[in-house]
Amino acid sequence: MLKTVSINHLGQHIGEEVAVYGWLHAKRSSGKIVFLQMRDGTGFVQAVMVRSDVSDDTFTEASALTQESSLRITGIVKADERAPSGVELQAVTLETLQLTHDYPITPKEHGVDFLMDHRHLWIRSPRQRSILKIRAEIIRAIRAFFDDREFTQVDPPILTPSACEGTTNLFHTKYFDEDAYLTQSGQLYMEAAAMALGRVYSFGPTFRAEKSKTRRHLIEFWMIEPEMAFTTHEESVEIQEQLIVHVVAHVLRHCELELRTLGRDIDRLAKVVSPFPKISYDEAVAFLQKNGHEITWGDDFGAPHETEIAAQYEQPVFVERYPTSLKAFYMKPDPMRPEVVLCADLLAPEGYGEIIGGSQRIDDADLLFQRFEEHQLPADAYSWYLDLRKYGSVPHSGFGLGLERTVAWICGLEHVRETIPFPRLLYRLYP
Ligand code: 4AD
Ligand code: MG
Question: Which of 52, 168, 208, 357 is exposed most, by the fewest CB atoms within 10 A?
Answer without folding.
Answer: 52
